[in-house]
Amino acid sequence: MNLYLGIETSCDDTSCAIYSPEEGLIAYRTAAQLDHAKYGGVVPEIASRTHMKTILPLYETVMEEAGAGLGGLSGIGVTNGPGLTGSLLVGLSFAKALAYGSGVPLAGIHHIEGHILANAIEGPMGTPAIVLVVSGGHTQLFSVEKPGRYELLGGTRDDAAGEAFDKIGKILGLPYPGGPSIEKAARSGDPAAFDFPRAMRGSGRCDFSFSGLKTAVRLKVEELGRLTEQAVADVAASAQEAIVDALAIKSVMAVEMTAVSRFYLAGGVAANGRLREVISERIGAAGAQVSWPPARFCTDNAAMIACAAWHHLSAGRADGLDLNTFPRGGLESWA
Ligand SMILES: Nc1ncnc2c1ncn2[C@@H]1O[C@H](COP(=O)(O)OP(=O)(O)OP(=O)(O)O)[C@@H](O)[C@H]1O
Ligand SMILES: [Mg+2]
After folding, report:
1. Which residue among 11, 112, 165 is best mutated to probe the pocket of ligand 1, counting the most ligand atoms within 8 A of its Cβ?
2. So what's the pLDDT on residue 324?
């Protein structure tokens, strides 16, 4: 059995996983860093220090659970960008040390490719496909010919969808991160209570903009004054509806443009129940089959990185020990 180790430390989650192409996911552990909540966002210095404390015990745990020895691994995959440089360096240095000490091949993985290939952890992805990546830092529509071949169709001009959820959560005084908090509050709210903007609706391109929505919500909250619990629920439901509607409009456009029959969600916002519901309905009506990763593989995790490592290394694409991190940069094809 081939075993691939995945390491993910691009932001505030430390994660290790062992994936086998024959057997699927063998072992998986993520340690979420809770210290950031009181600051209302990720503090890079705290994130990298916490990764340093957490990564070795996490690695030891997954190796023990998999009954694996370092020399028995077929490959090591590590997220080397985009992300916080200090955080990325902890995972990359750790992965390089393992590769150097064992001779096991190493593959640097683009974090967004990881999110896309989270859809391949529990079985192969159907391609060609459209993938909507909706996370804390990205909102992009890709045409995926096959794993390794990606064409960017469009993305956000300003805030990412997850960032919009987080900022609106903050305006409403909801716990961080805003995405899950807004989804929870929205359950008792009216999605039609406020008509928030769907920017770029008529642009004719697969692009998004969420900064105007954030401002519209802030102005509405100022106008409402002291917020009752019902008002918070109504603003949350209406804002969620605006984000989901904007994402669905351009997703349908991408499916119609490319005439593919498969559509996937990826990234943290893909955990949102209302997004899944609306996308299933409208993409289904456009003639494509919709899938998404299990919720625990929507947000940052190393299972997707281990799975991506298998795709790279089995196709003969490996990296040397001169591999470096990159804070920003688009996903490029490698296959
Ligand atoms: N149920 C949910 N509904 C809406 N948003 C959610 C939900 N669960 C998580 N999110 C959002 O997902 C984001 C985190 O996702 P993820 O971990 O993929 O992002 P990231 O790693 O910070 O960013 P990137 O992947 O772009 O670098 C946060 O913005 C969070 O609010
Ligand atoms: Mg992410």
Report:
1. 165
2. 98
CA torsion through residues 82, 83, 86, 88, sign? negative
Q: Which residue out of 88, 140, 300, 326 has the highest number of ligand 1 atoms within 8 Å of its CB and is therefore the one to mutate? A: 300
**113 CB less than 6 Å from ligand 1?**
no
For ligand 1, say whether the CB of 169 is within 6 Å of any of its atoms: no
**Residue count of the chain:** 335
Rounded Cα distance, 2 and 23, in Å: 9
Q: Is the CB of 301 under 6 A from ligand 1?
A: no
For 55-79, how does the pLDDT look when each residue is reduced to its tens digit (9 = 90+)?
999 999 999 999 999 999 999 999 9
pLDDT tens by residue, 279-293: 999 999 999 999 999
pLDDT of residue 72: 96
Q: What is the DSSP string of 63-103?
A: HHHHT--GGG-SEEEEEEESS-HHHHHHHHHHHHHHHHHH-
Model confidence, pTM: 0.97
With a CB cutoff of 8 Å and minimum separation 6, the contacts of 187 are 233, 237
Rounded to an integer, what is the distance from CA 226 to the centroid of its chain? 34
* C-alpha gyration radius of the chain: 20
Residue nearest to atom 19 of ligand 1 (CA): 136
Helices (H), the chain: 44-66, 85-102, 111-117, 161-171, 178-186, 211-224, 229-258, 273-285, 303-314
Q: Does the Cβ of 136 fall within 6 Å of ligand 1?
A: yes
Does the structure show a pLDDT above 90 at 33?
no
